[in-house]
Amino acid sequence: MGLPKSDKNQNSIKNVAIIMDGNGRWAKSNKLKITQGHEKGVGVVKDIVEECVTQNINTLTIYAFSSENWSRPKNEIDGIKALIVKAISDQVPELIDQRVKLNFFGNIEDFGSKIIDKINKAQNDTSLSNPSLELNVALGYGGRNDIVNTTKLLAKKVHNKEINIKDINEDIFSQLSLVPVDNIDLVIRTGGDKRLSNFLLFQIAYAEIMFIEKLWPDFTKEDFISCLESFKNVERRFGKRI
Ligand code: IPE
Ligand code: IPE
Ligand code: MG
Questions:
Q1: How far is the CA of 82 from the centre of ligand 2 (A)?
Q2: Which of 41, 147, 203, 238 is the most buried (most CB within 10 A)?
């Protein structure tokens, strides 16, 4: 594995990640409840998934709820939880039709048995060996925590003599991380802020990063297509003199 190789001509795009930010501001500016902003945001995911399938992208990894988001008001968190359950019920049939494989990752156990059961069923229902797209949803995820946790797993393996210290490498680290993708090609963050908010970290070492002013509920398929188009024209050097 290692870092991705550079493409000579146009970049091919395999793995996209999105920080879907701006639901709260969108709700406020439209005089709606915060949960209605999140609800509108779920609708946008559907459009972007469709476009990923059309464009033959391998994986789409989306930030749905960060480990830091647990510090939001209880009613907002309850609203998001209800929305997760609803979104799974509404969207799984279409994901199956589109041959999209759904994976959730993060500290999902914190969400309670109702959501865990729902997630397990959705993952089973969409599990197939040659999907058109893998849709990875980060839930209760934090990049730093993932790195520390992966380090603990490695330490345990060394302690139990399952692996030798000299065999620890980037591939093994990637495999033990919660994130189902090794190398992200492109990160898009909507909502205007230029930060990563603890998303992925290890896997975005050489990602192109695009910060988009639009709030997530206003983000369209066309906006996404224009991100993909500008990605194709970036010179990805990976440290080389080209
Ligand atoms: C992102 O939208 C969705 C989640 C964090 C769950 P926000 O709710 O953060 O929207 P803003 O940033 O407050 O507008
Ligand atoms: C990042 O957005 C997390 C998600 C999109 C799920 P936040 O709104 O939580 O991030 P900050 O607070 O602006 O860093
Ligand atoms: Mg935000």
A1: 19
A2: 41
Residue 56 Cα, ligand 2 centroid: separation in angstroms? 28
Cα distance between residue 136 and residue 237, in whole Å: 27
CA dist., res. 160 & res. 222, Å (int): 51
CA of 117 to the centre of ligand 2 (A): 26
Q: Which atom of ligand 2 is nearest to the CA of 68?
A: 9
pLDDT at residue 5 tops 80: no
Task: Find, among 185, 109, 94, 93, the residue nearest to 141 by Cα.
Answer: 109
Share of residues in the chain with pLDDT > 70 (%): 97
Distance CA 140, CA 137 (A): 10
Q: Which among 40, 44, 79 has a CA at the least distance from the CA of 62?
A: 44
Say yes or no: CB of residue 146 within 6 Å of ligand 1: no
The answer to whether 66 and 198 have CB atoms below 8 angstroms apart is yes
Does the C-beta of 18 come closer than 6 Å to ligand 2? no
| Residue bearing tokens 């959501």 | 115
Could you tell me the residue ranges of all domains in the chain?
Answer: 15-140+182-232
Residue pLDDT, tens place only, 82-101 = 999 999 999 999 999 999 99
- Per-residue pLDDT reduced to its tens digit, 217-230: 999 999 999 999 99
- Please give the CATH architecture assigned to the domain spanning 15-140+182-232: 3-Layer(aba) Sandwich (3.40)
